[in-house]
């Protein structure tokens, strides 16, 4: 992803505000979103527009990998960021002040239960979100590239 390209932040006002504070302060304001709940910034390439899209997401760790849950609050549709990375798994990540490139993949059926438990321990609402929808909510694994 070219650094000179303009990044469009999430269109949801509170998320856009969170992202702006996070970027402006190198994560000093926003990395810890709530006590014990940390967020990273994920930049994907729009699958239709080709534009860079950035959003803040709760994350967990599994060894060196970062974990995300594509929950969209339990709605029937996958979040746009998830659909974007399925189309192009090369992503940019910011964790606090650290920025790096990564490759995204969906957790395998063998990995998912363990990774889901890690993420539900951080944000217990994920379990509730899964009961709200018939779709299988994916866990995404980000591995540095």
Automatic annotation (TrEMBL):
Signal peptide: none annotated. SUPFAM superfamilies: FMN-binding split barrel (SSF50475). GO terms for cellular component: plasma membrane. It comes from the Bacteria. Pfam families: F420H2_quin_red. GO terms for molecular function: coenzyme F420 binding; oxidoreductase activity. It catalyses: oxidized coenzyme F420-(gamma-L-Glu)(n) + a quinol + H(+) = reduced coenzyme F420-(gamma-L-Glu)(n) + a quinone. Belongs to the F420H(2)-dependent quinone reductase family. This is Mycobacterium tuberculosis paralogous family 11. It comes from Salinispora tropica (strain ATCC BAA-916 / DSM 44818 / JCM 13857 / NBRC 105044 / CNB-440).
């Amino acid at each position: 992803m070219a650094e000179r390209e303009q990044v469009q932040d999430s269109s949801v006002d509170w998320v856009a505000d969170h992202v702006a504070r996070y970027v402006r302060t190198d994560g000093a304001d926003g990395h810890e979103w709530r006590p014990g709940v940390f967020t990273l910034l994920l930049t994907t390439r729009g699958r239709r527009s080709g534009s860079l899209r950035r959003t803040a997401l709760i994350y967990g760790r599994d060894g060196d990998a970062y974990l995300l849950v594509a929950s969209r609050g339990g709605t029937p549709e996958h979040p746009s960021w998830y659909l974007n990375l399925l189309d192009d798994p090369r992503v940019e990540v910011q964790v606090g002040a650290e920025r790096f490139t990564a490759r995204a993949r969906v957790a395998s059926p063998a990995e998912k239960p363990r990774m889901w438990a890690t993420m539900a321990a951080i944000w217990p609402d994920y379990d509730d979100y899964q009961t709200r929808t018939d779709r299988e909510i994916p866990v995404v694994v980000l591995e540095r590239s």
